[in-house]
TrEMBL record:
Spans traversing the lipid bilayer: none
Residues in DUF559 domain copies: 154-214
Organism from which the protein derives: marine sediment metagenome
Pfam families: DUF559
Protein known as: DUF559 domain-containing protein
């Protein structure tokens, strides 16, 4: 780009590229001697300082500023869909930004308010008290029994055992608890053998044994099959 510099008063000139009065140092940085060369670090820094705190219209003029913003996708009244939806634009292209709602005004990111660092003991206690109070007033409801859990209910009824369905122990809910034998029964489906389920169940079983449960009995589909059709 050729920069035209007109001479002015007091050894300063008007730079047509930046649209303001430039010092001799700035003229030397952007003058004819730098044409065709890669700008130096000092030239880039000088250019940045001239642009600092100024709008595109103040630097380039209204017409050129509109072209630059349109090319960079900065116009808020035009969709930036020609090259795949740019981050600078306020309007997202639905074809390329299928899940870009976090960038739009009025939306809340999924991790807003999420504590990523370690929690203090005071905060842990506060959260635990809040959860306990919610359980006390019935804010947490159990899920609707599955067909396997219904079959487990019929099995325990046929055995003549009194039990509590969906019994809570701390943070865990078990399918059935028999107080007279201090036993916990779990109805496990055909997908229970997944490694993540096994790890989760193992942690829960260890917790139940730690709090005093005599044993945790897992029943699979084959065990409950006679009661499935009832």
């Amino acid at each position: 780009m050729i920069h035209h510099i007109e001479s002015g008063k007091h050894g300063r000139g008007l730079c047509s590229h930046f649209g303001k009065v430039c010092s001799d140092k700035t003229k030397a940085l952007i003058g004819a001697g730098n044409r065709g060369r890669k700008p130096s670090a000092s030239a880039i820094e000088g250019s940045r300082r001239l642009r600092l705190g100024r709008t595109y219209e103040e630097i380039y003029g209204v017409e050129l500023a509109e072209k630059i913003k349109e090319k960079q996708g900065l116009n808020s009244n035009k969709e930036a869909c020609s090259r795949g939806g740019r981050r600078g634009g306020k309007v997202r292209c639905p074809k390329t930004w299928r899940t870009g709602t976090e960038f739009l005004k009025g939306s809340v990111p999924w991790n807003k308010g999420l504590i990523l660092g370690p929690q203090s003991e005071e905060l842990k206690l506060q959260n635990a008290l809040g959860v306990a109070a919610a359980h006390a007033r019935g804010a947490y409801h159990t899920n609707k029994p599955t067909s396997l859990e219904h079959a487990l209910d019929l099995l325990l009824q046929d055995a003549g055992l009194e039990y509590e369905a969906q019994k809570r122990f701390g943070r865990y809910i078990v399918d059935a608890y028999v107080p007279s034998r201090n036993l916990v029964f779990e109805a496990d489906g055909m997908f229970w053998n997944h490694h993540k389920d096994k790890e989760r169940e193992a942690k829960r079983d260890m917790y139940l044994l730690k709090v005093g449960i005599a044993a945790v009995i897992h029943l699979i589909d084959e065990d409950l099959e006679p009661w499935m059709a009832i």
